[in-house]
Every structure is written in C-alpha cells, then in structure tokens.
Amino acid sequence: MRVKRLLILVIILLALIPAFYVNRWLQQIIQPRRSFVQLMLYILTCFAFVFVYTFLLVWIITQVFPQANR
Question: Which stretches are transmembrane (predicted)?
C-alpha cells in the first residue's frame, strides 16, 4: 500500500514538468501583461488547462491502479 501511494506521488510530480512548460508557452503566446483582455484570456485558458489536465491525470492514475472489487 505504501509503494502504491509513493508511485502515485511520483506520477503527480512528473506530471508537473509538462504543465510547467505548457504554462510558459501560454505566457509567451498570449502575453497576459500587455492588456486586461489578454490577462482574462490567459486566466480562462489556464482554468481550462487545469481542468483538462487534472481530469487526464486522475484518469491515468485510475487506469494504472484500478480499485479492487470489494
């Protein structure tokens, strides 16, 4: 059980690396510091990205570690 928790933590930590680079890429593309509209676009894009990325990460973890039927 302890190894399973550690592996899930490692998967989450490894998933932070691509998220960091996607965020940097979004900042370069949208340039949120230029205007308020671009800031709002950046915030909306980040909310959507966090929602989709979290959904995919949870789905991957449930596929790798399926729950046992009780």
Answer: 40-61
Does residue 6 or residue 69 have the better pLDDT? 6
Give the residue among 2, 10, 1 at the shortest CA–CA distance from 61.
10
Cβ contacts of 19 within 8 Å, gap of 6 or more = 49, 53
Element housing 34 (H / E): none
Torsion-angle region of 29 (φ positive above 0: left; ψ -120 to 50: alpha; else: beta): alpha
The CA distance from 40 to 38, in Å, is: 5
Number of residues in the chain: 70
